[in-house]
Amino acid sequence: MKTSELFHLLKQHEQKPLLFEYAPNLLVGANYHITEVKHLKIDSVDCGAGTDTWNETIIQLWESPEEIGKTEYMQVFKALAILERVGQMKAYDMDAEVKFEYSNANFHTAQLFVTGFTIKNGNLLMKLDVNPTDCKAKETCGVAEPAMESANECAPGGGCC
């Protein structure tokens, strides 16, 4: 999700509570705070000597130990106000990919991609997930792409079952 898409989504649902699903059926606690917004410029070289640059927006979520047991989630309008205030201090690249950084006692610190969202029980639920590492220079480095199975290979008697 691009930063601009996140802002557009939040503006459409300002009166809803904002929830984050960091793994299937696991929610960031209602005691979360937005504690940091990072504007990153990535300047990389891959294993095939290819170069690339891009920007990312990283929004950090933190669960306050002083508010364990809290049941009311932050309203979208409050999150939007925080993010807009940050934007007045440091401009966003609205085309940058947005990620949410999060951890808890049972989940390692990770930068999670937005994989979708849903309206559930009157809440705006942001679905987050990790994106596995990958080799960007497969062709240059001689890394074979996984073979795609054709429909014929899995036909009865095709040997794939």
Describe the structure.
The protein is of the alpha/beta class and about 160 residues long. It has one domain (about 5-135). About 15% of the residues lie in helices and about 40% in strands. The protein is built from three helices and seven strands; from the N terminus they run αββββαβββα. The protein has helices at about 5-10, 75-90, 140; strands at about 20-25, 25, 30-45, 50-65, 95-105, 105-120, 125-130. The protein has a seven-stranded mixed beta sheet, covered by helices on one side. A hairpin with a 2-residue loop joins β5 (about 95-105) and β6 (about 105-120). It is globular and about 50 Å long. The two termini are about 40 Å apart. The model has no long low-confidence stretch (mean pLDDT about 90).
Describe the secondary-structure layout.
Layout: H1 3-12, E1 18-23, E2 26-27, E3 32-45, E4 51-63, H2 76-89, E5 97-104, E6 107-120, E7 123-129, H3 138-141
Parallel strand pairs: 1-7, 4-5
Antiparallel strand pairs: 1-2, 3-4, 5-6, 6-7
